[in-house]
Design brief:
The chain is mainly alpha-helical. It contains 13 helices and no strands.
């Protein structure tokens, strides 16, 4: 490998790391923005979907034009299924923040890789690695502690929605892998627009204060920005590295909730969160180290 090629690869990797890390930080604002907006969850979803779908559509059209129109925008039944499933998961996701702590939602969502692996094994008999099984068992203990602490409080329903959203996210990732020819980002834009239509039909999205209107536009823009940053960054770095960096969303979400909402979850939630985070980062970190050693071995030849 020439020095020029090495420098180019290094620059692309650095850019990929910055983009994916920024995506995690922006996406971590979801809990803070949801709780800061006084409107009901469906109104929030409506405007988040409206603003997000417009911005993501502009991005998709820009990518298509940049590639000379080679990227197909035809969804087909697979793309529509992705859009519908993503919309349902988003409803559970946004609603969860209204009924429990931001930390609880973020930590439960952090188990999505393990839920995805389990569902893939059940539905498609995809091999379930021993490493993943061990991390999943540890993270399940952490989630159990968090959910148990919600009994007798108003947080249990929100924790349940977060679990439902995590299962939906796992199904979504399995479908993304299965439907490789489907334009996933475009399906995301359509999913956001479906949420806008749903919110418009069942709520009164215009009955919001000027303060909420500003926050709703900000929310939609942050949703689109995090999606775009992730898409661009994930193109430049290995999947194991993007997965590890994406896990940073959880501590970001907890930090933002503390800084902007002064939200401190109960001790049981913190304990469960620490257990889950240890499992997630240990699992993602091991994948990253293995991938890095493989790249080093390949470059040595």
């Amino acid at each position: 490998m020439t020095d020029t090629a090495t420098t180019t690869d290094s620059a692309e990797r650095t850019l990929g790391i910055l983009l994916v890390s920024s995506s995690a930080a922006v996406f971590a604002l979801t809990g803070v923005l949801t709780k800061s907006i006084h409107a009901d969850p469906l109104t929030i979803i409506c405007w988040r979907g409206f603003v997000g779908s417009i911005l993501i559509t502009l991005y998709v059209l820009w990518r298509s034009r940049r590639s000379g129109g080679r990227e197909s925008l035809r969804l087909g039944w697979r793309g529509w299924l992705l859009a519908a499933e993503g919309a349902l998961a988003s409803i559970a996701f946004i609603s969860a923040f209204k009924f429990t702590f931001v930390a609880n939602v973020a930590v439960i969502y952090a188990t999505a890789p393990f839920v995805t692996a389990l569902l893939a094994w059940v539905l498609t008999r995809e091999p379930f690695r021993l490493q993943t099984m061990a991390a999943a068992a540890v993270s399940l203990c952490g989630v159990a502690i968090m959910v148990w602490s919600g009994f007798g409080t108003g947080n249990l329903f929100g924790d349940g929605l977060a679990l439902l959203m995590t299962i939906g996210s796992g199904l979504y990732m399995i479908m993304v892998r299965a439907f490789r020819d489907t334009p996933v980002v475009w399906a995301g834009a359509v999913s956001a627009f479906l949420l806008f239509i749903l919110g418009w039909l069942v709520t009164d999205p215009l009955a919001v204060s000027s303060r909420d209107a500003v926050l709703l536009v900000t929310f939609g823009a942050s949703f689109a920005l995090s999606s775009i940053l992730w898409t661009e960054g994930a193109r430049l770095i290995p999947p194991a590295e993007s997965g590890l960096l994406g896990s940073a969303e959880v501590p970001f979400a907890i930090l933002f909730a503390f800084l902007f909402l002064s939200e401190i979850p109960p001790a049981a939630s913190l304990l469960g969160g620490v257990i889950v985070l240890c499992a997630v980062f240990a699992h993602a970190g091991r994948d990253w180290l293995v991938a890095r050693s493989q790249r080093t071995a390949e470059n040595s030849f």
